[in-house]
Amino acid sequence: MNLALTYLMAHIIILPQSVNKKKRKPMIPDNVKPIPKSVSSNQELIQEALDLGCTKAKVILIQTISMAHWVNLHCQFGCSQYGKLLTCPPCTPDTDEMAEILTEYDKALLINATPNANVQEIVVHLENSFKRKGYVKAFALGAQPCNLCDPCTVSTFCQHPDKARPTLQACGIDVKTTVDKNGWTDLAQQKPCSESHTIGMILLN
To answer: Are 41 and 133 in contact (CB under 8 A)?
Structure first.
């Protein structure tokens, strides 16, 4: 061994393992993928609805909401509440107006409650909760005509603007087609705006 090599070996500094080794991130198997934030967020929305007593809840795309002019026709000729409530036609957006409004939203939470549940209270509660979570455009649509005032102050102004919300049908939404499009074909046929109607929705940005 020559003198240069001996000198070099004598001056080598051996670093501790903790310094010499870089921290390694834990390896994630290729077949395990993290849950996307959007999916996680959707699950939170669904769970909140279920916690309030809903039997079903699903986040749906706005494009799957079916609009139909015949729905307004049935309101005008066939419903005793027509023109008597601020949350019913002709005070609510017609089919074309609602279709335009929906373009400003991305998705909606579709819910189904039990027959004895107050769908109106549930959707309004969810609307307020979602607004606090950052869904600033959240808006509830109920299942049955508003009964907060008897009679409704339709000739003046709403006494409960924080609670009164129109039904899906009052805004020209074809509920049956919308529900079927989103896979809830097992639900029994429900008469729009009747006491047994249990489907509501919260529009979300």
So the answer is: no
